[in-house]
Design brief:
This protein is of the alpha+beta class. The protein has 7 helices and 19 strands. The two termini are 32 Å apart.
């Protein structure tokens, strides 16, 4: 197996690592070793790796910035594709932004601002990539990817073909897209914005960033908001009302700054975070009757 992936990586001059710790590739700074990790530098490599994994029935994981992932301490059996800087290209044509899936949202927002394009300000400061944002229909401060996405190209791993979907075909809803299920790898996006005043766009981006810095525990590793917003309320409000702010399990803590965040306060393990998530969900449900749903993607066999 290893020889096959070594050969593919060599063909495309891509970096390949074996028994590689995943904690360096997630914002939570948690995760055991992956059998094989390849830093993807072109779409052709992704197609070849996906085909090889499918033929040999080897698990395949695709990671952008890893900002919404919690990976188990036992690591990942199979192959991990990490999108390298080669997947951070942005092209502007009128009010359209075309970008690779691995471009950081912060960079995408800055490019939009430089070209006086408005509509993407909500995403400024979301710590992830464009592909990851579309995958979960990320949103904040009154906006979400559903509002701006026009189309996306992706690899259908089932048949090895690159295809395209329009926004209407993506089944976009709160923290959901059609990419959540199925075997597809997002490769690039086309986003439609509107012409605006650059000074106003920048001011709104600065305002949103200041709110993030003031309210969120950005000084600690985390995966952002841990729970989805329940209908008619906020997860952070319910958690605080249940007296869970500051609750700890090992190195994991419900942030004292923003109770919607579970943070890695110091050398937290996967089990620490999972255990704390379970405590929060159980106590909130017991005291309020509201069932919180995880926003973080947990990569393990356990079910929360």
């Amino acid at each position: 197996m290893l020889k096959d992936f070594k050969a593919i990586a060599a063909e495309y001059d891509a970096e390949i690592l074996f028994d590689c710790g995943m904690s360096s590739f997630t914002s939570f700074k948690i995760g055991g070793n992956a059998d094989v990790l390849i830093k993807a530098n072109c779409e052709e490599l992704i197609v070849e790796v996906a085909r090889a994994c499918a033929l040999k029935n080897i698990p395949l994981y695709v990671v952008g910035k890893g900002s919404n992932l919690l990976i188990c301490d036992e690591g990942l059996r199979g192959v991990v594709l990490v999108l390298s800087s080669a997947f951070s290209q942005v092209c502007v044509e009128g009010v359209l932004l075309s970008c690779s899936a691995g471009v950081l949202l912060s960079k995408l927002c800055q490019v939009a601002c430089e070209h006086s394009l408005k509509g993407l300000e909500f995403a400024y400061g979301i710590p992830g990539t464009a592909g990851g944002a579309l995958f979960m229909n990320a949103g904040a401060y009154g906006g979400e990817m559903k509002d701006v996405i026009l189309s996306a190209r992706f690899l259908d791993v089932n048949d090895g073909k690159i295809k395209e979907l329009s926004a209407a075909e993506m089944d976009l809803s709160y923290r959901h897209s059609c990419f959540n299920s199925g075997n597809n790898i997002i490769l690039s996006l086309c986003i439609r914005l509107e012409k605006g005043e650059q000074a106003e766009i920048k001011a709104k981006m600065d305002e949103i960033m200041k709110k993030r810095q003031d309210k969120q525990p950005l000084e600690y590793p985390s995966a952002g908001s841990t729970f989805k917003r329940p209908p008619g309320s906020y997860a952070s409000l319910l958690i605080e009302q249940c007296g869970l702010k500051g609750r700890e399990v090992g190195g994991a803590q419900v942030s004292r700054k923003h109770s919607g965040f579970i943070i890695n306060k110091g050398n937290a393990s996967f089990n620490d975070v999972v255990g704390l998530i379970k405590i929060v969900k159980d106590e909130v449900f017991s005291k309020t009757g509201v069932g919180l749903e995880c926003e973080v993607k947990i990569v393990d066999n356990c079910q929360l």
